[in-house]
């Protein structure tokens, strides 16, 4: 009986470790540069933001004041969303938002879904010129 209990416990631990390993088994066609130094993925006033566990794909995004902006947000890893105070942007999970910034300045983009230990550090900057 003790042998079966130990075997069951061992298998349970292995299953939990495998599920929590965090290894992404999906194939990607390119690498994501998370340094913020990569080429801007925005096109005009259209921005594509990707959320990866506890960070966004870029440190900064730039748009023009007075022009309509479309943000497309996609989770690559984990469950995240984005919000930008002062610009009425609130996307929970994958989605889109459209807004028109009227005031130039810097606005904080942050994760609006509590996602774990790195949640408070999950920020980026929207620069409106």
TrEMBL record:
<dbReference type="GO" id="GO:0016491">
    <property type="term" value="F:oxidoreductase activity"/>
</dbReference>
<protein>
    <submittedName>
        <fullName>Cytochrome c oxidase subunit 2</fullName>
        <ecNumber>1.9.3.1</ecNumber>
    </submittedName>
</protein>
<keyword id="KW-0732">Signal</keyword>
<keyword id="KW-0560">Oxidoreductase</keyword>
<feature type="signal peptide">
    <location>
        <begin position="1"/>
        <end position="18"/>
    </location>
</feature>
<dbReference type="InterPro" id="IPR008972">
    <property type="entry name" value="Cupredoxin"/>
</dbReference>
